[in-house]
Amino acid sequence: MKLKQLSIFLENQTGNLSGPCKILSQNNINILTLSVADTEQFGIMRLIVADCDKAKTALEQAGYVVNVAEVVAIEVGDQPGSLGEVLAIIEKHNFNVEYMYAFSGDLKEKAILVFRFEDTDKAIKVLCDDGVNVIKAVELYN
């Protein structure tokens, strides 16, 4: 139920977002979801791809600094209040969210929330116990 997410560290300069995307394209690696966070000097491009190991190797060979982290993806209704319900479960069990982002893709009336938790295993157990649909990697990639 854990997913591998790549984090690519980039200088915050015009045009730097396209470089990793070109490398992945040249290696026939599809991006499932992507998020970018920045500061004044650098940015972090976080993405989930179907072949994490191949992507990491290709990006590192191109000179990028790449980190792999475990994240958790959950499915929720694509409607007002869905995120709030999940956050209430997280708060009730008092565990920390380091960051999160969302996407909807081809899902009908569903959205996917991707979380990086301080304690991934605990988060998965709590979410599953409370009836949240934690998505397996194979489900997300298909």
Decide which structural class fits the backbone.
alpha+beta
Number of domains: 2
What would you give as the CATH superfamily of the largest domain? ACT domain
Taking the alpha carbons of the first and last residues, their distance comes to 14 Å
- Summarize model confidence as the mean pLDDT: 89
Total beta strands: 7
- Rg over CA atoms, rounded to whole Å, is 16 Å
Q: Could you say what the CATH topology of the largest domain is called?
A: Alpha-Beta Plaits
Shape: globular
State which percent range the strand residues make up.
35-45%
CATH level 1 name of the largest domain: Alpha Beta
| CATH architecture tag of the largest domain | 2-Layer Sandwich
Largest sheet: 7 strands, antiparallel
Order of helices and strands: EHEEHEHEEHEH
Can you give the helix content as a percent range?
25-40%
> Spans with pLDDT under 50 lasting ≥5 residues?
none
| Count of alpha/pi helices | 5
How is this structure best described in words?
Strands 1, 2, 3, 4, 5, 6 and 7 form a 7-stranded antiparallel β-sheet that branches. The chain folds into 2 domains: 69 residues, VC0802-like (2-Layer Sandwich), CATH 3.30.2130.10; 71 residues, ACT domain (Alpha-Beta Plaits, 2-Layer Sandwich), CATH 3.30.70. The protein is α+β, with helices and mostly antiparallel strands and 142 residues long. The protein contains 5 helices and 7 strands; from the N terminus they run E-H-E-E-H-E-H-E-E-H-E-H. The model has no long low-confidence stretch (mean pLDDT 89). It is globular and about 45 Å long. Helices cover 32% and strands 39% of the residues.
